[in-house]
Structures are given as structure tokens and as C-alpha cells.
Amino acid sequence: MSDFDPARRRLLTAGLVGASSLAVSGCDAFDMLSDRDNAVRNFIEGANGLTYRAQRILLGRDALAKEFTRADILQPQRPNGVTNPSDADYKALAAEDFKAYRLEVSGMVGARLSLSLDDLQAMPSRSQITRHDCVEGWSCIAEWSGVALSAVLERAKPAQSARFVVFNCFDTIERGLSGNIKYYESIDMMDAYHPQTILAYGLNRKVLPVSNGAPLRLRVERQLGYKMAKYVRSIELVDRLTPFGLGKGGYWEDRGYDWYAGI
Amino acid sequence: MQRQTHPASHRPLIYRQTIWTRLTHWIWAISLFFLLLTGLQIFNARPDLYLGQQSGFGFDNTVLSIRAVDSDSGPKGVTTIFGHDFDTTGFLGYSGGRARGFPAWATIPSGQDLATGRVVHFFFAWMLAGTLLVWLVAAILSGHLRRDIIPGGKDFRNLGRDIRDHARLRLHHTGRYNTLQKLSYFGVLIIGLPLMIATGLAMSPGMNAAIPFITDIFGGRQTARTIHFAVMLALVAFFVIHILMVLAAGPINELRSIVTGWYRTDPDEQSKGDKS
To answer: In chain B, what percentage of residues exceed pLDDT 90?
Structure first.
């Protein structure tokens, strides 16, 4: 075996120095990954699709999120995001205990619906004690009651070609130069028909308070909190998400968060 | 030093690391670099750790909390571990003129950006888990795991001597891993990284529905998050010792073996190594 090659030694030393300077120079070296048009980021985002497909295979249609008992409810449900919408139409409805509230269901449906809270409460209800997992990392267990989204959809008779359910909300989450941005979210049909996917009007056996999304909020128990739109104004069935917001399927998705929030 | 008394030809180069060991080593090194720094980014979104299923807002189950507080001399970083406060200004809680858990130099991206942190974290999580799985199957089939990673009876009998040798930095360069190396690599590859993947999945609401016990065996989602953090600290400790040992054992020779596979052994050590 030949003796050690000095050229190779220099190469190795350069590599070592390069690697260590990377480590100490701080991590603004990778800040371009924050740019949502960055080619590397777009490639890396492909892993989200992998997660979505893998979890869809593992989860199947009906695997249920863990349900807890009332003994596990140790504290009020932590409100976050918008907790008191200042939108005039919302405040007018809230002032009258949402008596004039109507949930509008439209888009690719056989029958458009306009449902009052009484209509929704007359439909079969479901209660579930589940853990709310926030994308920030915290969790909170609470009891949610509401109407199964599948029951509402059955009345609306979605077209076969409908692929997503979009939730338009009352609350303005961002006031920008180009106008106010209202919260919105979307889920696929498999989650829409999941037995634990409900439009909740009750929290911990009381009427859903404004801070947690009154009069109606979505629960999608197999995903993170940001999917569970509060202050739901209307539901649209669609075959693509591009016409809404910046086209990524939700307020936070438009700001770089994964559309599939199962992890 | 023996190095001066023996010409290079008496310290034979042996082919020590296969292409698969070298390839997976560098894939894992790069993956763990990004996983660590994006993991700290994700942690910064809520720089508190709890025990159990949920986070205590109306009750106390916090084991670690990092935050900024106002003081007479301006903002301070405070880290609370099991109820004990530590002033960590400049590192944890408050750094670079901002309230933040870990400082900008320890996160990717450097600013607060949970969305990007998650995207990058999950990409490298797939990379790590995928290559670890392929490596594990191949290592079992090829005997690499049994031969080189799992410590045997002889390794444990040598443990005392091996610890003394390491403490005196009397490092042997043979074709085989010594006892402490086997224990560290076993700890990282067979315990640490799989535990990291399992606790990571235990935090996923989707996986909770698919495989509920994955969260239950760790005692809940928040405990899983705390364990995920603790194992991260253990892996960082491994990394620091790993680098120190490379420097102590001769960085050029060690780096060459993990880049090219070729390793220069001590005189008379090769035959000993071959017998073990």
C-alpha cells in the first residue's frame, strides 16, 4: 500500500475546516429555505406528500383518534389564534346569540343548504373527548359536541368529482395593505366523512364560547389544530384549492405550513 | 510515540469501513445536523416541556421552561428546570436582543420560522428513518450488526481495561471497534435514533389514530415530546465525545477511514484485531 498522499491530506483538512466553519457561522446559511419559491425548499416539501400518502395508507378511512374520559379534562380549552373577531357582521350575529346565523353549504353539491344553529342541533350529534394538538407543540384535552360533517354533506349531496371541503370563516386574521385576510381551511373527502370530523357547537358540555370559535368550529381529530377552523361561516365543495387565498388550501398553508397536518 | 519508531510500512493500511458504512455515516451526519437545528426551531415555537398527555395551563406539569423576563437591568433569559431558575441570558430565553428559546445561531432558519423548520425537519426525518431501516436490515443480514456493533461477552470482559485505556487516551488502532465504541454505536443506532423516530411519531396526531400505543407507551404526547428533547441532548453529547475521540485518535487517519475506507493500524495490532 502506498504511503499517505499529502494532496489527500489537504483535501481532508479543507473538508474538516469547511464543515466546522459551517457549524460555527450560524444558521443564516440556510435562510434561503424560508423563501417559498426556493427550488431546494420546493424539493424538500415533497416529503410532505410522502407523509400524507404514508399516513393515508396507515390510517385508512375509519381509524379513530384516541378518545379520553372526563377525568382527563383538567383545564379549560386553551383559546389561540383569533379569540375575539372584530368583524362587524360577526359582532352583529354574536350580539343576538347567533340567532340569525346560517351555515351556507355550496359549491359542487346537488342541494345548496342554509342551516340555522337550531337546524344543526336537530341533526344527530356526537360528543368526543379528544386531545387538541397545536402545531406549536402544546396539547389540551376537551370534550367537543357537534354535528357530524358527514351528516351535513349527505344532505348537500356532493358531486362525485368534489375532492375538498373548504371552510370560509368570519374572522379577519391579518390586516394587510392589500386588504383584510380572513381565515380559511380545507380538508379532503376522506377526513370530511371521518366519524370524528364534526362541526362543534359545544365545548365541555357548554355552548361553544366566542374565544373557541362560536357558533361553529371544525374538529378534524387526526390533524393539528390549525386545520380546525373557528368561526365557520360557510362550506364549499370544490375539486381544486387554487381559487382560494394564495392557493395552498388554508391561511397557514399560504404561509408555508403543510396542507396535510397529520404530523 | 510508536508512530515515530515505526515507518509507515510497519503500520499497515487496512480496508476498515465498507462503502455502506461510509455512505450511511455521512447521510446520517448531514440529516442529524439539519434535524437538530430545525428541531430547536420547532421547539422555540413553544419552549416548554411537560409530562403527560397535555400541557398544563390550569395546572403544573412543566419540567422545563425557557422564557424572557423583564428585570431592572433589562430583559433577561430565564430557564426553569424542575422548578429551579437559571439565568441564561444570551443563550436561552433572550439572545441577540430578542426573546427566543434557543439563539439564532442554533436554529434553521435563523429567525423564527416554524413552518420552514417543520418542512426541513420532516424531510430529513424521512431520510434518516429510511436509511436507518435499510442499514439495519443489511447489517443484520451481513452480520455487521452482530460482528461490529452488538457488544459480546469478550467486549464486556475488556470493559474495565477499555475504560482505563480511553481515560489515559491510550487509543488502539485496530481493524475492530473497541468495547466503548461498540457500546456508543449500539446506543446511538439501536437505541437513540429509533427512540427519536418513535417519540417523533408519538407526537403526530395521525399516528395517534393509526397506532395509539406509540403515544401510550411513552405516557402521552407531551412526555413523548420531552423524551424527544432528552434524547436529542444525549445525541449532542455523543457528537461532542465522538469528535473529541476523532481528534485524540488522529483526525487524519480517522477521517480517511470514514471517507475512503482505508485506516492505518498500529504495528502488531492488525493481527490482534483479526483474531477478535
So the answer is: 79
Which 3 state secondary structure label does DSSP give A57?
A: helix
Cβ contacts (< 8 Å) between B46 and chain A: which residues? 134, 136-138
- Inside any domain, residue B184: yes
Residue B215 and residue B231 share a domain: yes
Q: Sign of dihedral through CA atoms B43, B46, B49, B52?
A: negative
Give the confidence band of B97 by pLDDT, cuts at 50, 70, 90. very high
Q: What is the ipTM of this complex?
A: 0.89
Q: For A39-90, write each residue's pLDDT tens digit.
A: 999 999 999 999 999 999 998 888 999 999 999 999 999 999 999 999 999 9
**CA–CA separation, B183 and B166 (whole Å):** 13
For the four alpha carbons of A86, A89, A93 and A96, in that order, the dihedral sign comes to positive
Quick check: A18 pLDDT over 80?
A: no
B95, B103 contact by CB (below 8 A) = yes
Q: Residue A184: what are its φ and ψ, rounded to 5°?
A: -150, 160
Beta pairing, strands A103-107 & A232-238 = parallel
Number of domains forming the structure of chain B: 2
Q: How far apart are the first and last CA of chain A?
A: 51
Say which CATH superfamily domain A64-255 falls into: Oxidoreductase, molybdopterin-binding domain (3.90.420.10)
What pLDDT score was predicted for residue A59?
87
Contact B46 A137 (CB under 8 A): yes
Q: B158: helix, coil or strand?
A: coil
Residue A256 to residue B115, Cβ atoms within 8 A: yes
Contacts of A31 in chain B (CB under 8 A): 109-111
Q: What is the CATH number of the domain that holds B18?
A: 1.20.950.20
pTM: 0.90
| Residues 187-206 in B contacting A (C-alpha not used; CB under 8 Å) | 201, 203-206
Q: How far is CA B183 from CA A155, A200, B32, B163, B236, in A?
A: 62, 52, 20, 12, 16
Q: CA torsion sign, B143 to B134 to B224 to B187?
A: positive
Per-residue pLDDT of A228-246, as tens digits, reads 999 999 999 999 999 999 9
